[in-house]
Amino acid sequence: MERVRAVVSLPQRCRLSCPICNLRKAKRFCLALHDHICAQCCGEQREVTIDCPSECPYLQQARQHEKPREFGNTLPEEMFPAVDIRQDFLMRHEPLMAGIAQTLTRMALSNRDLRDRDLIGALTNMVKSYQTLLASGLVYQEAMPNPAQQAIIDVLAELLREFREVEAKQLGYTSLKDRDILQALVFTLRLIHLHTSGRPLSRAFIYFLQERFSEASTPIDSPADAGSRIIIP
């Protein structure tokens, strides 16, 4: 009788331990792993090794307590500190800024696998390309080995082309300069760095965008309405 009881109780004890650390009690149900894990592993591995879905209550709770990242008075190199962006730039180019944000939102909604680091990689590539164009006049776009990042670059390039076409039709000329585009891309890149958690699988900035732009219209169709939704970090 004792032998049967021991055999039955063994799987029950195993189910009580966290499948990640195998040490602590598994008290939280993980939507990504479809299993119970311990609170410590939930906190340490969230968006690091665990690809947390947006509906996870523990992820949502953690986001409520997260603050935008701070970089002090000196921006790191990955935020291109040499690019100066004046406050009036945002006022003059609100439709463009909103268009970029809405485009990124639509891509994220259509591709669940997109993460903040994909946006950072794509925008960094575009910024470097425009810096080369402004410095030497050469059009150089490094091909991205990551298909998701290349798709972001292609879609944003198409947005910028359409933006200039619409502007030319409405005004009779195109006022959007390559330097304006560079500043718009750098501003967006800085915004991502400010709002991402910095973890490898983070979608913090993507969720930040979706809360504000998931129902937004296309700025090319209605620039006034789109421009009113511009985000200031």
Strand order of the biggest β-sheet: 1-2
Residue fraction in strands = under 5%
What's the total number of strands? 2
Number of individual domains = 2
Q: Can you tell me the overall shape?
A: elongated
Helix count?
10
Helix and strand arrangement:
Blueprint: H1 2-16, E1 28-30, E2 35-37, H2 39-45, H3 57-65, H4 87-92, H5 94-110, H6 116-136, H7 147-171, H8 178-195, H9 204-213, H10 223-227
Antiparallel strand pairs: 1-2
Helix pairs in contact: 5-7, 5-9, 6-7, 6-8, 8-9
Structure report:
- The N and C termini lie far apart (67 Å).
- The relative contact order is 0.15.
- The chain has two domains: 2-65, Herpes Virus-1; 82-227, no CATH class.
- The chain has a two-stranded antiparallel sheet.
- The chain is elongated, with a radius of gyration of 23 Å.
- The protein has helices spanning 2-16, 39-45, 57-65, 87-92, 94-110, 116-136, 147-171, 178-195, 204-213, 223-227, and strands at 28-30, 35-37.
- It has 233 residues and is mainly α.
What are its keywords?
10 helices; mainly alpha; 57% helix; elongated; Herpes Virus-1; 2 strands; 233 residues
Please provide a brief summary of the model:
This protein is an all-alpha fold.
